[in-house]
C-alpha cells in the first residue's frame, strides 16, 4: 500500500506531458509518482504502425533531452524509443497498468484510490490524453466487429473492401495505406472537402480520388452498417456499397466522466471545457491541476505535445512557490 508516503505531486497519465511534469518535479526536488492505466505513452503506442508526426523532433522534446530522428518528421517508433529512454535516463517514478479510480480530499491531502493500491498526495496533476474514448457514428450496426475506431496496420486489409470515415489525418493515412496494401477503399467525408491533413499527404489522397483509385463521397454520412454492406447518405440520395470493414476515423474525446467524478467543473456546452487558471493550470479543486490535451475539452486539436509542455513548468513552479510561501 502507498499510504506510508505523502507525495508532493501525484501525476495521472504517463504520456509525454505527464512525463514532463515528473521531470520538472524531480528537478525541483519534489517527491512525485506517475500513475498510468496503460503502457508508457499509451496514446502514442495506439497510433497507427506507420504514423509520422506533423511536428519536428525538437518540438516533441521534454526535460531538455534531445530527440534525434533519422527523418525530417519523427515516426511513432522513434517517439516511443525516445520517451522510454527519457523515463529510464531519469529513472522516473512510474507505475504502469494502474488505473486511478477515485480522488478524495481530506484537509490538505488527497487520497487516491487505484486499481492496485491507495496513495496520498498534496497536489494532483491530471495529464490524461483523449485517445481512449472514440467519437461514435451512432448508426445501426456500429457494434459489429467489422467496425473499427482504431487503425493500426494496413496489411490486415489486403484484398478487403474498406470504408474509411473521416476528413483529417487519421482518415487520410488509413485510406492511402490500406489502398497501397491492396484494399478496395471508399472514403466518406461529412464535409464538402478534405480537412486538415499533413501537407505531404493531402495531394497524394486528392490524386488517388481524382484518378478513381479511391472512391470518395463528400457531404455524406454512413447511415447503417450491415455484415456485408454499408448505406451512405449522399447529396444525390442513399448509396449502398459492398463492404468488409469500416474504419471510423472520427476522432476521440477526453474522459469527461473521470473529471466530473473527481469534481472538476466543465462548461455545459458541447465543448465541455474544464475549468482551470491559465497561469497556474489549477482547477476549481484546490491543488488539482490539468496538463496537456485534456485542457481543451472537445477541442482536441488545440493542445499538442509541443505547445503543452509548458503546462508542466507552470504547475511545478506554482506548487514550489506555494510550498516556499507556507514555510515563511
Automatic annotation (TrEMBL):
Any GO MF annotation of the entry: oxidoreductase activity
One Pfam family named in its UniProt record: Pyr_redox_3
Domain of life of the organism encoding this protein: Bacteria
Family annotation (InterPro entries): Bdr, FAD/NAD-bd_sf, Ferredoxin-NADP_redctase_2
Keywords per UniProt: Flavoprotein, Oxidoreductase
Coiled coil regions in record: none
The protein, known as: YpdA family putative bacillithiol disulfide reductase
Amino acid at each position: 500500500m502507498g499510504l506510508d508516503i505523502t507525495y508532493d505531486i501525484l501525476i495521472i497519465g504517463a504520456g509525454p506531458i505527464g512525463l514532463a511534469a515528473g521531470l520538472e518535479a524531480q528537478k525541483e526536488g519534489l517527491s512525485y509518482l506517475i500513475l498510468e492505466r496503460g503502457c508508457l505513452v499509451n496514446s502514442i503506442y495506439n497510433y497507427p504502425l506507420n504514423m509520422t508526426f506533423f511536428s519536428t523532433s525538437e518540438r516533441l522534446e521534454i526535460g531538455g533531452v534531445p530527440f534525434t530522428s533519422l527523418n525530417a518528421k519523427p515516426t511513432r517508433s522513434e517517439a516511443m524509443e525516445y520517451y522510454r529512454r527519457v523515463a529510464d535516463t531519469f529513472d522516473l517514478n512510474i507505475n504502469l497498468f494502474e488505473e486511478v479510480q477515485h480522488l478524495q480530499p481530506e484537509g490538505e491531502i488527497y487520497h487516491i484510490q487505484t486499481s492496485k493500491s491507495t496513495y496520498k498526495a498534496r497536489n494532483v496533476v491530471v495529464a490524461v490524453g483523449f485517445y481512449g474514448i472514440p467519437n461514435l457514428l451512432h448508426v445501426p450496426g456500429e457494434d459489429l466487429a467489422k467496425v473499427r475506431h482504431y487503425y493500426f496496420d494496413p496489411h490486415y486489409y489486403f484484398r478487403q473492401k474498406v470504408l474509411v470515415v473521416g476528413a483529417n489525418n487519421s482518415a487520410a493515412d488509413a485510406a492511402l495505406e490500406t489502398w497501397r496494401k491492396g484494399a478496395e477503399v471508399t472514403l466518406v467525408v461529412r464535409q464538402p472537402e478534405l480537412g486538415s491533413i499533413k501537407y505531404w499527404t493531402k495531394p497524394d489522397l486528392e490524386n488517388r480520388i481524382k484518378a478513381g483509385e479511391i472512391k470518395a463521397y463528400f457531404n455524406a454520412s454512413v447511415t447503417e452498417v450491415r455484415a456485408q454492406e454499408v448505406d451512405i447518405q449522399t447529396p444525390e440520395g442513399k448509396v449502398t456499397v459492398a463492404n468488409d470493414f469500416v474504419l471510423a476515423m472520427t476522432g476521440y474525446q477526453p474522459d469527461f466522466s473521470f473529471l466530473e467524478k473527481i469534481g472538476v467543473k466543465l462548461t455545459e456546452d458541447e465543448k465541455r471545457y474544464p475549468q482551470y487558471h491559465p497561469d497556474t493550470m489549477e482547477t476549481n479543486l484546490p491543488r488539482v491541476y490539468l496538463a496537456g490535451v485534456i485542457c481543451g475539452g472537445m477541442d482536441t486539436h488545440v493542445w499538442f505535445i509541443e505547445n503543452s509542455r509548458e503546462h508542466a513548468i507552470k504547475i511545478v513552479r506554482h506548487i514550489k512557490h506555494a510550498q516556499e510561501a507556507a514555510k515563511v
